[in-house]
Amino acid sequence: MIEVKDLVRQFKSGDRTIKPVNGVSFELEKGSLSSIVGKSGSGKSTLLSLLGALDKPTSGDVVVDGVSLAGLPDGKLTEYRRRDIGFVFQQFNLIPNLSAVDNVMLPMEFAGIRKAARLKRAKELLEQVQLDPEKHPRRTNRLSGGEQQRVAIARALANEPKLILADEPTGNLDEQTGEHIIELLSSLSRDHNTTILVVTHDRSLAQKTERCFRLQQGRLTEEVRSGSRR
Amino acid sequence: MSVLARSVGNAFRNKIRTAAVVAVLAVAIGLALSMLVANQAVGSKVQELNASVGTTLTVNPAGGQGFEGGGEPLTTTEAQTAASVANVTSVVGTKALRLQTATTGTTSTTGTTGTTQQTGQGGGFGPGGQQASVSTNLTAAIDAGTLGNRNNSSGTTGTSGTTGTNGTTTQPARALPITATGIGAEVDSTGKALNITSGTGLGDYTTAGDKALVGTSLATKNNLSVGSTFTIQDKTFTVAGIFDAGTAFGNNAVYVTLPEAQTLAATPDELSTMIVTVNSMENVDSTKTAVQNALGADKADVTQGQRNLETAVSSLDSVKNISLVAFIAALATAGIIILLIMVMLVRERRREIGVLKAIGAPNRTIGLQFVLESLVLVAMGSVVGAVIASFASGGIASALISSNTSTTAATTTQRGGGLAGAVPNGAVPGGGGFGGGGQGGPFGGASQLLTSVTASVSPGVLAAGIAAVFAVAIIGALVPALLTARIRPIEVLRGE
Ligand SMILES: Nc1ncnc2c1ncn2[C@@H]1O[C@H](COP(=O)(O)OP(=O)(O)OP(=O)(O)O)[C@@H](O)[C@H]1O
Ligand SMILES: [Mg+2]
To answer: SS3 of B126, please?
Structure first.
């Protein structure tokens, strides 16, 4: 379970300070599927990178299963990212000169999984995101935007993380493939008890999540829905 | 895909740049290795020079180096006087004889009469008058080529009268004479310890005896081995040992005990030269003056192999220093190149480091990846550089040495006179008979040593040089990579 406590992140640009995240507090149940919506530039990516320990808050704290990220040294944060987090970047951030399979295998390599097991799982994951691991160019920078996005999702799932943070995971996908990715994520939360938080502009995706938050002027508010679903 | 595979792949990510980096590294590393090799070659040569003639003084009869000859021969009294000078560790007297091959010698009338005349004339014979000529059944191991002819003709013009006839009528362009030297200790005519390759030494060098040491080439030429016999002036000598002087002329020689040579020359007590050994390099200068004073300027000339050699050694030393500086500079260049390249590569791939870090790569994995990548580059540079060095180092070493010592070598050979200059390691002590001066020995040898320095690659040297570059490469890769990895991933990912 994730507890976010009065999180603030401010940036100085010139003589102005902006606070895209300004006192955000919420909790996510284990195995829940939630979404964050908001205008472009409202600070969704900023919030997500604070949860994923890619950035440090100006103040406030994120507590994961009782462990406060604020108190962790760099090495422990790296371990947290490796073991507990699957992060899908808005810009994908694949290693351009490696193949799709190699990219997906990377987090497993860092986790010390043996090579044969890594390869097998990487191929399975690519198939799950509807990519054929056999027939792809050797470099991911030759892939299309949607293909790269799916490799990024497969990589995020590699180490079976407790928490998946996905920044616009369907932004580059056609409707049908997007549907498939949403289905994949909800099945993970349902069957593997994985906590999932997606940032999206996609109404239909937001509709399908159990909870939906809106980020506005640095504050997070939960959208109240009529019938909740699962 | 492992860290290693990723690193190797990254090293070749931009092939043109990789080729350029490897080429530049190879030149710098090749130069560094060449310099190290040159440094070592020069260093060992300096040691060799110091060891060979470092602390000896040579004493000749006064005027013995001039064309006119003259002066009184040295005797055992002078040897005792020299030995009593402070800092002198030993005085070894030598008595040089010129052996003429009897087959030609006896057919001419000069055979025995020549000997009588010459010994009778003592100091008056030839320049320096230090070499009595006696007959032998040995044949010289060196054929008289152009050099021999020149020697003979120079002998003819240089000396007149008695030997003039002898030289022109009975020995037109034939073998060079053999040098027989009576020695007071087991050293050669320049004071170096004899290198006896088979048999034994002469044992007691202070009494007359019919044992002799024969040079390798002379032994081969005359089919002599340990136990064989030959004659000098009708006396039968047994070969006690064969020595190797290292040069053709040095090996065309016979050594007997000092008293024996004095008997053969019928000049008991007389010495051609004395080799005075001084206890340390620092004392050579002062001891030279002291010996000169003790013996008297009208009686003996004390010369110092050291003086010229010091110049040679100090110029070699400066070459050694230059090559060391150049080695360090070239190595530093290689280091700076790999350092800059790695800093550049890390900068270029900052974002990638951020990604690796964001998906959970520990700092050590990131550091290792870049270290391996830089090692791949340096390894390729080293291999190519070692190939360059193996071709270039010999040339560089001898170029350095010859350009820095040519003046010294010129002075040296000049002093040695015509022959000694031309003859490598002119092992003709006091070479009076050849119309030249007396100091051919050590200086001819030195000039040859200086010019023939050849560099050799020892595995230790190579390993040390390459290890240093690798160390720089590791640091050059590790430091910027770790500095980047320490930054929060989001800052790196967001880019500049
Ligand atoms: N390092 C930074 N320095 C200064 N300002 C920053 C920095 N990072 C983010 N910002 C600002 O914070 C605000 C929020 O950015 P963020 O990327 O979180 O928006 P977003 O909600 O993800 O937008 P989008 O939907 O377009 O992805 C933006 O105005 C951005 O300019
Ligand atoms: Mg964003």
So the answer is: coil
Residues 6+ apart with CB under 8 A from A103: A94, A95, A140, A151, A155
Determine the Cα–Cα distance for residues B291 and B306; give it in Å rounded to an integer.
15
Query: Domain map of chain B by residue range?
Result: 3-50+313-493, 73-162+170-298
ipTM of the complex, rounded to two decimals: 0.94
Pick the CATH number of A2-223 from 3.30.830.10, 3.40.50.300, 2.60.220.30, 3.40.710.10: 3.40.50.300
> pLDDT digit string (tens) for A156-208?
999 999 999 999 999 889 989 999 999 999 999 999 999 999 999 888 888 88
Nearest alpha carbon, ligand 1 atom 1: A11
Chain-chain contact of A56 with B489 (C-beta, under 8 angstroms): no
**B185 pLDDT tier (thresholds 50, 70, 90):** confident
CB-based contact A49:A55 (threshold 8 Å): yes
Which of B360, B363, B491 comes nearest A81 by C-beta? B360
Q: Do B488 and A54 touch (CB under 8 A)?
A: yes
Burial B81-109 (b: 16+ CB within 10 A, else e): bbbebebbebbbbbbbbbbbbbebbeeee
- Return the number of CB contacts < 8 Å for A and B: 70
B84-106 tens-digit pLDDT: 888 888 888 888 888 888 654 43
Strand order in the sheet with A33-37: A85-88, A163-167, A195-199, A33-37, A211-216, A219-222
DSSP B268-290: TTEESEEEEEES-GGGHHHHHHH
* Strand positions, DSSP E, B165-268: 178-183, 196-199, 211-215, 229-232, 235-243, 253-257
